[in-house]
Each structure stands twice: as structure tokens, then as C-alpha cells.
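G., before I forget:
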Amino acid sequence: MAAKSNLVNMVAVLGLTCLLCSAVLGGAYALTKDPIDQAAAEKTNRAIAEVLPHFTDLSFDADKNCYTATDGGNLVGYAIQSEAVGFGGALVLLVGVTPDGVVYNTSVLSHAETPGLGAKCTTDQKFMSQWKGFNPTVKKLSVKNDGGDVDAITASTITSRAYTLAVENALNTFAKVSEEASSGAFARAGSQSDAEEEASSETINEGGLNNE
Amino acid sequence: MEYFLIIISAIFVNNIVLAQFLGICPYLGVSNKLSTATGMSMAVCFVITLATLVTYLINTYLLVPLGITFLQTIAFILVIAALVQMVEIVLKKVSPSLYQALGIFLPLITTNCAVLGVAINVVTKEFSFVPGGMLNLGQALVYAFATSLGYGLAMVIFAGIREHLALNDVPKAFKGVPIAIISVGILALAFMGFSGMVK
Amino acid sequence: MSKWKMITDGLVKNNPTFVLLLGMCPTLATTTSAVNGLSMGLATLFVLVLSNMAISAIAPAVPDKVHIPVYIVVIATFVTLLQLLMQAYTPAMYETLGLFIPLIVVNCIVLGRAEAFANKHTVLESACDGVGVGLGFTCSLTVLGLVREILGSGSAFGWNFIGGNDGMLAFVMAPGAFLCLGYLMVLFNKLVKKN
């Protein structure tokens, strides 16, 4: 039923099959590239919308893993991807920080924690809601066991510590980013008077509070 | 230091059969005798390590620069098929007895999910104990070799269990594969105790 | 053999999971819930039917000595096609099933049916066989996923009926997969042998 197995036939059939299949896949890839990119962008937007107030534009800084969100020219906040080592592996968070340094919200991008224990970091309402509006200048950023103000998940101290550490890492990145942004603003402002600069920074803060 | 973490994680914490569910079919098929289990583990170890080396290089120097990573599945499986063919030819010449003992299971290493699974994992998965997440070639090879050691360990332990099971009074409906799978489940439960070892 | 019988054979007589004992790896790994098992089964069905039809069509022209690599390339093409389509249109399920989508290439069911059936039958018959075995696989996966989900998370198809997530978590993790499959096999054997 099959063709003869001489060298020419074998090479020809195998080569032709590979060529045909690669062509089919190349075509499919070209057709699906846009939907795939779109799906990825939507996923990112959805994740950031969870951790920041309303925004219209995003810009991404790959070095610091930080998204800058703006709404018609006004700075809304930063969505920073940070991670820490949890019980079963990397715990990756997206932390939304408004320009006044307060955490707007956090969300878990990926984790390898134990189901029913550490994995509750994505379902335990009591644990998750304490991060909304978490102000690191008012509350201490460590779990209650370590003398801080963070309520840990029951029986999952290691995961809770990792979560807290990841938020701390994000806030450190925020400090770096806002320092660079403000030193850049000062350099641009240059000859502007001090009063004008103070007024514009107050406006930004008011905008952040109103959006909560 | 990270090499040690890679090895411990690959053999115990994330054992390829008991935690990642790769390589089950030959695992159930070859493990009824200790001697064939050992021979099979060595063959799989060799193929996994060599396949990871070749596929990693092909991915890094051919697929990614040309932007054709969607051909990854085809390219990787062809490499593995060719490699297994070569191993068969070499084994026939070097150790005909082992070749006979492995029988049909040697060409079946091509369809062993563990080989393709490790090759794909190494180039796509992000690992927590390595800064940046992606493995370089050295780490990838250590990971592949350690994974296959974990496979061998699980297989040898299981072969021992099965040899004992064969001498026991198993209820009729459980005989053969069902009791074997239940035993693997209990073994997997035991290996779960290793989780949390790598911080 | 009638086309209808080919389809129903795949459900019980030739059930890939409980009778042929093929495709164990995705069976254990992707059945953490009923929906995941169902999706994996349907994905495999897609590849199985298409590759059966393609291989049945080209089998007369393929020399015997290269038939395995050629079949593998054809199957891998359909798997990659599935990957691209899922990535574009069902990205959430694509991420859940993860590594096991490309692993459909080495799913013994697909290559096994190609070798044992497709290259000796017509395109339509091979399609029916693919549908039958694929449906059998999908049913097994969905049942196993449902059992694990009920025991492990107290929900069925995503509908939580015990309020909260206090199920027996071992069943959602590795050991539970093996234990559930083993006991389901025993149940299947008892039910089918009785007939």
C-alpha cells in the first residue's frame, strides 16, 4: 500500500512534508499574530486595571518592570511587577502605587503555593483587602508575627512573609522611579519658580485621593 | 550553589513522574522488573540530557533569531526522533544484550512525554532559584540530567514495590494496572513531603 | 464495520484511558477540574481527527521506512496549529493547560491510532475513528476531572456547592490524581466486565 522505500522517495517525501507543513504553519502564524498580541495586551490591561484607578495610557519600563499609567496627561500611578520567593517557588505580584506612595491595590500574577494554604493569597478576602490603600508610612510593612501590621494568612506565614516582601520590593522600585521622574521634572522646570512647582505637585496629589 | 538547588529541586521536590506527570506510560510499562527498570532509566537519562543540549542550541541560535519559535514543537520532536534512532543504532553495536532487554521500549522513548516535556520546559519556564528566571546552557544541562536521575529514582523505587506486589493477594478488580497506579499515588504522597525544601 | 459503531467503540470497548491505557500523562495532569479535563479532551480530539484524516490521505504515498517521522511531522503541524489558535482565541485555557498542549504530539493515542488504523482505512472512516476515540478520551478526562473537583474543591464545573474552599486538597494535587484514576479503573473494570 505504501510507496517504495528507496532513498530518493524517502528524502523527497520527508522533505516535501516538512516544507508543506512549515508553509502551512507560517501562514497560520501570520494570521494569528495580531489576535495573539491583542489577547496579551488585553490581559496586561485587565491586570493593571485591577490595581490602579482609571487610566487611558500606559508606558512600560522594562528595566524596572514598571508600568506608568496616565489619564490624559495626568499621572495616575505606577503598576510594578515584583516578586519574592514563597513556599513553593516565585510569588509574582502586580502592585499598584499612586504617586503619593500609597499602595492602591495588589494582585497575584503567578504563584506556586500550596492549595488551601498559601494559595489562599488569591482568595482570602481578609488578607487581600488589607492591601487596598496600604500606606507604608502609617503601617509597618511586615507580618504581625514579626512585629508589623500585616495580617498573615492562617497557617501560611511563609507565603504571607513572601507577599509582604514582594510589596516592599515594589515600593522600593516606586521610590527609584518617582525619584527619577521628579529629578527629571526639576531639570525640565529649571527656571520655574518654587511656588509654581509646589502648586503643580499638590494638584497631582489631590487627583490621586479623589480617584480612590 | 544554584546548581545544588537545581539538582535537589529536580530530583525530589518537582520529581518528573510523581509531581509533573511526565513519562507515565513507559513508567508503568517497564517497571515490573528491577533490571529492565534500571536499563530503561539509563537510556532515558542519556536521551533527555543529549536532547536538551541539542534543542536548547537550536532554539537559541536558530529559532529565536529567525523569529520562528512557532516551529518549536516540530523542530524539537524531529530532533528527539533522530536522536533515539541514533541511540538505537549505537546500542545495537555496543551492547546487544541491553538492546534486546529494552525491546520495543527503546524506540518508544521518542513518544516519552518526559523528553519533549523537559526540552520545552527548559526554554520556556521561568525558574525561581535562578536570577532572571531563564536557564543558561550549563544550568539547563544540569537540570535535564538531574530530572532524569529523578525519573530513574522513581522508577527503581516503583519496580521494587511492584516486585513485592506481584507476590501479594490483590483483589481481582485491582490486579495489574489499577493497583500499580494506586501505589504510585501513595508514592507521590510520600514525595510531597519534600515540598518546601528549596526556598 | 459501520461508521456509527466506530464512534461508539471509542467510548467503551476501545476507551483510550481505561482499556488501551494510552495518554496517561495529560489524563493525570490536566484533570484538576471538570472544565480543564473537558478542554484537554476536546483539544486532543481536534488533533486526533485532523491528523487521522491527513495521514489516511497521504499514507499510500509514504515509503515505509520514513513513515514514522512523516506522521510525526504531520501531527506536530496540527498541534502547532492548535497552539496558535488557542493562544489567539482562548488565552486563559491556553495558560491553564500549559505544557500539555504541545505534548499532544507525543500522546500515544494520536500516533497509535495513526499507525493502527488511519493508514489502512479511508479518510471518512479514519475521521469517525478519531471522533470515537477522541470522545472516549474526552469523557474519561471529564469524569476524572469532575471526581477530583468534587472531592478536592467541593465544586462541579466551577459551581461551588460547599461554600469556601475546604475540599480534600490532596485530590487536586499529584497523589490524588493517581488514586482517583486507579479507583476509577477498578470501577470501570467491574462495570464493563459485568456486561
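Helices of chain A lie at 7-51, 125-129, 157-189, 194-210. The interface with chain B takes residues 18, 21-22, 25-26, 29, 85, 87-90, 112, 114, 158 of chain A (CB under 8 Å).

More on Monday.
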